[in-house]
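TEACHING EXERCISE
Course module: macromolecular assemblies
Task: Read the component lines below, then compare them to the predicted structure of the full complex.
Student: A.B.
Group: 4
Components provided:
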Amino acid sequence: MKNRLKVLRAERDWTQADLAERLDVSRQTINAIEKGKFDPSLPLAFKASRLFGLTIEEIFQDE
Amino acid sequence: MEGFIDMGDSQELSRRQRNQLNHRRLAGYTLVWLVSLALVYFGHRYLWDGAALLTSAMVGINIIAGIAMMMANKKLLAGLDELEQKVQLEAMALALGAGLVGGFAYSALSQTGILPFHAEISHLAVFIALTYLVAMVKGVKKYQ
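Instructor-supplied answer key:
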């Protein structure tokens, strides 16, 4: 699954650690999601959606 | 059990603090469990001169400490994020499978007299622990 987390994070000048803290996950998890190695659960996707003020589809795209 | 080992809610803590607390709790109960297990053997032989009642009581304490350790591990796992839980699950599945297959194979070799030494349960525990460690390292690298 592709996602725009890295772009959205960069727009806000957040580090992976900053985003991890806001989503209450580890930095390694953010890194794995950004690299497409791990797909987040629906609750985590909703959390990211609320954090960025976007819909889930605007952040995550099915390949 | 939750009350006994004081596993109060730690929602106010940050993720890092919560994990540190859970790790310390698990380490503490693991130490208590190991010491109580050592006391079963040491006490039986050197402290209470083989009194069955005292040894049985010590085994009971050891089992209670073991249950507390398991609950602390459960609490630790519940506090991890979803990727960490996935890595743990894969490592534990591999360790369990390897322990089961390896354990029965080891037992068969021992029972048939092919092993040149006496099979010990501790060998299996070390094998499971090493399998778990290797699987954890591989799991962490896989998602890096």
